[in-house]
């Protein structure tokens, strides 16, 4: 039996108002797996936990419970400087997140990889000029075709953003109030009342495919 490229097992992250507070002010919970050679769209309102999920997957945030396995290896047990050889987080601002170091380096494992298997794109910019969308679609496809997992997080404010997701992704995650819901296609996303409320008018405005752009 093959091991999924990415396994998010019973993952929970709780945030508290202070170290003495007993009740969590926000909780993110996720449990899913993705085989290699797949592109997954990630949607959800601001503050729902999308970036926190990405940070947990790449090992730059410490989970309260659960674990993240990349090709069967717990990323939180890998050396900090080598975690991006398993999963890498591309930020819109190109900001590099610092790792919260909770263990001595000698206590951690080597990555045993040279290139990341999981690629997480956090709200990349899509310009409609000069064929840029076509270039990005080809880039995502190439990563997928090489056996990687691509997580593509987009906060749609134009109908073509939904078209990009529909063309690029085989399945979807909708993050809402700390819960990560899974859907097999864009139609299923659109049918969920919370997702439709989040997308607003864009849910009815998604137009024709964008493969011809550029």
Describe the structure.
The chain has helices spanning 50-58, 132-145, 159-168, 186-191, 193-199, 202-205; strands at residues 6-16, 24-34, 38-43, 65-70, 73-74, 87-91, 118-122, 149-153, 171-176, 179-183. By secondary structure, it is of the alpha/beta class. The protein has one domain: Rossmann fold (3-Layer(aba) Sandwich), CATH 3.40.50.300. Strand 1 (6-16) and strand 2 form a beta hairpin.
Termini, distance in Å? 42 Å
CATH architecture: 3-Layer(aba) Sandwich
Q: Could you give the count of β-strands?
A: 10
> Can you tell me the overall shape?
globular
CATH fourth-tier homologous superfamily: P-loop containing nucleotide triphosphate hydrolases
Q: Helix coverage percent of residues? A: 10-25%
Task: Determine the number of helices (DSSP H or I, runs of at least 4 residues).
Answer: 6
Give helix and strand order, one letter per element, not per position: EEEHEEEEHEHEEHHH
Low-pLDDT parts are 207-214
> What is the CATH topology classification name?
Rossmann fold
Strand order of the largest sheet: 6-7-8-3-9-10
């Amino acid at each position: 039996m093959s091991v999924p490229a990415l396994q998010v097992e019973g993952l929970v992250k709780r945030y508290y108002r202070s170290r003495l507070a007993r009740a969590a002010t926000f909780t993110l919970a996720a449990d899913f797996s993705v085989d290699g050679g797949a592109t997954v769209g990630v949607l959800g309102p601001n503050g729902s936990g999308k970036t926190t999920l990405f940070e947990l997957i790449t090992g730059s945030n410490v989970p309260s419970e659960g674990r993240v396995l990349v090709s069967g290896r717990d990323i939180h047990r890998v050396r900090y400087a080598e975690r991006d050889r398993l999963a890498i987080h591309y930020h819109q601002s190109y900001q590099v997140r610092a790792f919260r170091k909770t263990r001595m380096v000698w206590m951690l494992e080597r990555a045993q990889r040279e290139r990341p298997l999981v690629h997480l794109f956090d709200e990349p910019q899509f310009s409609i000029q000069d064929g840029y969308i076509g270039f990005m679609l080809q880039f995502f496809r190439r990563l997928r075709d090489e056996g990687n997992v691509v997580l593509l997080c987009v906060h749609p404010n134009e109908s073509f953003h939904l078209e990009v997701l529909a063309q690029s992704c085989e399945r979807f995650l909708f993050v809402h109030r700390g819960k990560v819901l899974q859907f097999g296609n864009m139609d299923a996303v659109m049918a969920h009342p919370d997702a439709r409320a989040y997308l607003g008018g864009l849910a009815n405005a998604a137009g024709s495919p964008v493969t011809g752009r550029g």
